[in-house]
Amino acid sequence: MKISYNWLQDFIAIEEPPEMLGEVLTQTGLEVEGIETVEKVKGGLQGLVVGEVISCEKHPDADKLNLTTVDIGQDKLLSIVCGAPNVAASQKVVVAPINTTIFPTNGEPFKIKKAKIRGQISEGMICAEDEIGLGSKHDGIIVLDTKVNNGTPASELFNIGKDSIFEIGLTPNRGDATSHWGTARDLRAYFKREISLPKINLPQRKTDRPVKVIVEDDKGCIRYSGMTIRDIKVGPSPDWLQWKLRAIGQEPINNIVDITNYVLHSLGQPLHAFDADKIRGQKVIVKTLPEGTKFTTLDEKERKLSANDLMICDDQGGMCIAGVFGGIHSGVKDSTTSIFLESACFSPDYIRASAQRHGLSTDASFRFERSTDPEDTIFALEYAAQLILDLAGGFMASDTIDIYPKPVEPVSIPTSTSVFRRLIGEEIPTHQIHEILNLLDIQTSEKGESFSAIVPPYRSEVTREADLVEEVLRIYGFNKIPLEDTFSSDYLAEFQEKEPYKLQEELSTFLAGNGFNEILTNSLTNKIYQEELKLSAETSVEMLNHSSEELSVLKASPLYTGLEVIRHNLNRRQENLRLFEFNKSYYVNVDYHEDEWLSLYLTGHTHETSWMSEAGEFTFHHLMQYLEGILDWSGISEVTTIPSQQSSTFQYALDLSLNNVSLGSIGKLKHEMLSYYDINQDVFYLQLDWKKLQRYTRKSFDFRPISKYPEVRRDLSLILNKAITFDSIQKIAFNSEKKLLNRVNVFSIYEGQSIGEGKKAYAISFYLRDQTKTLTDKQIDKVMNHLMQLFERELGAIIRK
């Protein structure tokens, strides 16, 4: 948002230079991101001086050129070749001496150099108004009617204008400060100076075909004010108004539109002027239109309306998307002679939704989205009407229309100075708290320690005691609060026990230490992936204004972009890959949904072949080992696995769960899917629900001394049905012997005719240890006999002895 230093002085007296004022604005919560100096005339006529033409003769070799000598207050007269038809001796003129840079109205700036024109030396230039940015005329040089001394800077003769513009990074909660008046209110509180609004003195009204107003949707339209003005003349705005607008980056259009923009930036109240003769039925109706209704806006784009778009309509259809953008047929044109002037307060929720839905951001929507003052519509309307009558003529053809069915009441917030002391950590005098709040238009019911703060409607973001504390503190000065070693205050927010970004950083470090590289992929992808591969059963989220078909939807599965990365690397002979990514997937199921994932990819060989060892290919068990490492890092120990049914994604896989809550999947990706991406080697994939992993992570560890008693190993060979997994054996063992059994390991698996069809044999090592004493053979045999009985009874195992 741009705020003009000169414009502010229409509302409050300012003595401070722009740099100091910028620091004050930043302290009060209006962060100044930069200060820019703008000039009404580019270059500010720097270097240009007043000169007097001493002599003027025809150029001997050019009919249209003249040889002049010019006095610019120096010891030596300048010889200047001039082609202007009106140049003559004794004239006072504007001269650009050698090395002066001039800024023409049209074209790029350039530096004056000593030149030879048709054989004659020229030591400068006598200027026309378009050559130095003072206008558009080029029919002759500027002839001055002045008696100032030769050599006087030209800038002293012209009202060239100069201003300092503050670029303010306005936060969404400061709807009260979206104008020069709103900014002046903060300065009033800080400097304790008077502020003033312009005086309004409207002439008598003459009723002539007044436009009627009907508000059908009073939820979206909180207040609607309007007025009909006739017999106006649309034309260019006066110089002062054009300069005000140009200084803040607004291009003047015509006097009517410029006035509405001027009032918007002055007071923060958006206005809209309709061509009254184009309002069919002479009725303005505030309502919504049916879903899919077509409407052409000022930018000549046809848009399909939502049933939730608030519209300004006439008898036959829409004229304007309320608070956002006007229609192509109802705006003010050069031929307009009558207008209906609108000043309204619309619901921020309605305007924000419509602006986002149609991809529009205007000065009006910027303010309505942040909430405007419902009490300001009449003043802004009448101020604009007064300016229109002054600058465009005409007469008021109606009374001021004002529809305000449910007035917005001030908010009362009970509080006490002890709350300010508790949250700030320092005591601010009671009288100063009351004074600051009153200067911010927040009245206080009592002047003691306990009081109620009465917040005006235009401060809609101030709703609780903490907001009142912030208001006082930003005017009192954050920098006045000493930050001592013993400083303390209460926190308003609760802090998360587990910080997601910290956990993500720690886990990334862990994976990088295990040889993984992190990848970052685009959330946007090609919609053809979901259409042809269907890795997600949900509906993709399509972009309304996508830049290309290749980036037209939000990815429904991390695999869509992860496999692109693998293909990219394989095409560049990077074949041995360990990759991980923290990513998101998106889908629509009634509402929009967003899931967060941790994805791991393994493909190729475990390491490069060397003279020391052959390179082995990655397998499912390598990825399982990394999963166990992640779970161990997270402090999660009781994950259960079942065969996965995700046939569209995996050739084989396991689904992971914890406490009956799905945690993710791990497996080997299907060859058909890999072929789709031109990947000709196996890829193993782990997908973990990152939010759930965070929830169950327990980053605490128990440390115990290494046992001084020996570990004992006993081996068993079990013949089992082929369907029984090692996981089943392990669970039975640990559930049975929780005290002495430390770990279980498979060191051989056999399948063959010698043990029977549908059977397999596991050779398993059981490791036992007592932390308090050396185990005896009797204790060991007891544990092993009990385990063998359990395996025989529960798994139907045959123990090979």
SSE layout and pairing:
Elements: E1 2-4, H1 5-8, H2 18-27, E2 31-39, E3 49-58, E4 66-71, E5 78-82, E6 92-97, E7 101-102, E8 110-111, E9 115-117, E10 120-122, E11 124-126, E12 143-144, E13 162-169, H3 180-191, E14 212-215, E15 221-230, H4 239-247, H5 255-267, E16 271-275, E17 283-288, E18 294-296, E19 302-304, E20 310-314, E21 317-321, E22 325-326, E23 338-346, H6 348-357, H7 363-370, H8 377-392, E24 395-396, E25 401-403, E26 411-416, H9 417-424, H10 430-439, E27 443-444, E28 450-455, H11 465-476, H12 500-513, E29 517-518, E30 524-525, H13 527-533, E31 541-542, E32 553-554, H14 559-570, E33 577-589, E34 591-603, H15 620-634, E35 640-643, E36 650-658, E37 661-669, H16 671-676, E38 683-689, H17 690-696, E39 712-721, H18 726-736, E40 741-750, E41 759-768, H19 777-795, E42 798-800
Parallel strand pairs: 14-17, 29-33
Antiparallel strand pairs: 1-13, 2-13, 3-4, 3-6, 4-5, 6-11, 6-12, 7-8, 9-10, 15-23, 15-24, 15-25, 16-23, 17-20, 18-19, 20-21, 21-22, 26-28, 27-28, 30-32, 31-32, 33-34, 34-38, 35-36, 36-37, 37-38, 39-41, 39-42, 40-41
Helix pairs in contact: 3-10, 4-5, 5-8, 6-7, 9-11, 18-19
